[in-house]
Amino acid sequence: MLELVESHGCFGGTQRIYRHQSATIGLPMRFSVFMPKEASQKKVPALFFLAGLTCTEETFSIKAGAQRFAAQQGIALISPDTSPRGAGVPGETDSWDFGVSAGFYVDATQESWSKHYRMYSYVRDELRETVVNELSIDSSRLGIFGHSMGGHGALMLALRNPDTYRSVSAFAPVAAPMRCPWGEKAFGGYLGADREVWRQYDASELVGNATRKFDEGILVDQGLADQFLAEQLNPDVFEAACEAAKQPLTLRRHQGYDHGFFFIQSFIEDHIRHHARILLTL
User: Fold this and answer.
1) Tens digit of each residue's pLDDT (9 = 90 or more) over 62-75
2) DSSP letters along 95-108, please?
3) Is 259 a catalytic residue?
């Protein structure tokens, strides 16, 4: 059962925060939802936004400025938290890039982490089923996008589940997590030492084996003043993998933009339009 925590009028619709007891995570989870005015009369398409390291379910709704453009298109926006809260795993608050606020959208297999850190299944199954069953959302018209760690999550979830997510985009994604310090730390901690297991969560590894291509294209925006670009993000690796797999990709590189939400604000309208072009014609 959903508990409504907050509700605010927003661009003719409502911006809400919900809390529910998650069977997948085994703890209470929160997520934000923007519902456009059209949802009062019919089921609407929805975009899931996965946020990055240190973020919560509120970060995107407060900082991205997406509601104006989602309202214009009649599309709902859903953003979950980035990890379980209150799991009590030893060490889960020791660093900002692993543990709390850093679930990396994987299902952990390692002892201590595997009981609660199951963000992949939570996003793909429980969260999706909850909003479809409880809110006025069209289950056949769902897209996914995200930023940084969440960009990794969006690309990976879409490539693994192309029949669930019909459109996908990302801002500054961790595009080849097996090849960067953030990904190696997260995958090693959550999944163990076997790098073959890691491949199922790496978009640059997955794109060549995807069961269905996104023929309408994947959109990725990357700032060239991004402080994490050289060491963590690897957009060139993903670009090469898409080219080899003949997966249409629009990778836009922007001078002067860094890794933060001012970058996202600058191009969020393009991403909403990218998804609307696909979801509203299904």
Assistant:
1) 999 999 999 999 99
2) BTTBBTTB-TT-B-
3) yes
